[in-house]
Amino acid sequence: MKDQKIVDYIVSQMKEGVSLEEIRKELDRRNLTENEIKDYVEAAIDVAIYKTQGGGVTEDEERPKKQWGFILSLIGSVIIFVESLVLVLYPLPVLNELHNILNFIDTGIDYAYTLALGFGILIISFGVKKSRKKKILGILIVVLSLIAMVISGFILGPLLGIIGGVLISRKSAFAR
Question: What is the rounded CA–CA span in Å between residue 26 and residue 9?
C-alpha cells in the first residue's frame, strides 16, 4: 500500500523540474527500499500522466483558470466604462460649426451606449462568480464587448472582455 503523501511529493518535485535521480536520492535518505522507490516513482508518473490528460483535475486546480476569465472581463469592462465616461463628460471635437455640433451629438450618444455596455459587462462579470450559468454569461460578455468595440472603436477594453468571456464560457463547459 502506497503512502499518497510520498506520491504527491514526487509529483510536485517533478512539476518543479527536479530530476528523477535527485528524487530517488531523497527517497533513499528516507529509508525506502529500491523496490518501494521504484513503485512510488511509477505511481507518481501515472498520476502526472493522468492529470495532464485532463483526468483528476480538482476544483482547486481549475479555479485559477476560471479566475483569469473573470479578471480579464472585469478589467476590460472597467476600461470600457472609464473611456466612455471620459468621452461623455469631456468631448473631444471642437464645436465651431453646425456639422461638428451634430457630429458631436451623434458621437456622444454612441459613447453613452458604450458607457452602458461597459457597466453591463461589469455587472455580468461580477455575476459570473455566483451564477451556475457561466457559459451563457461568458458568451454574453463576448457579445457585449464586440458591440462596444463596433460602436466606440475602443480596442483594449473590448478585447480583454472578449478574451475573458471566452475563458469563462470555455472553462465552465469543462468544469462539469
Answer: 11
Domain that residue 96 falls in: 59-174
The residue written with cell numbers 504527491 in the block is: 8
Rg (CA), the chain: 26
Nearest to 79 by CA among 142, 165, 164, 160: 160
pTM above 0.70, yes or no: no
Closest CA to 172 of 123, 107, 127, 109: 127
Mean pLDDT of 82-89: 77
Both 115 and 165 in one domain: the answer is yes
Mean pLDDT of the residues in the chain:
77
Q: How many helical (H) and strand (E) elements, i.e. helices and strands, does the chain have?
A: 7, 0
Residues 134 and 76 in one domain: yes
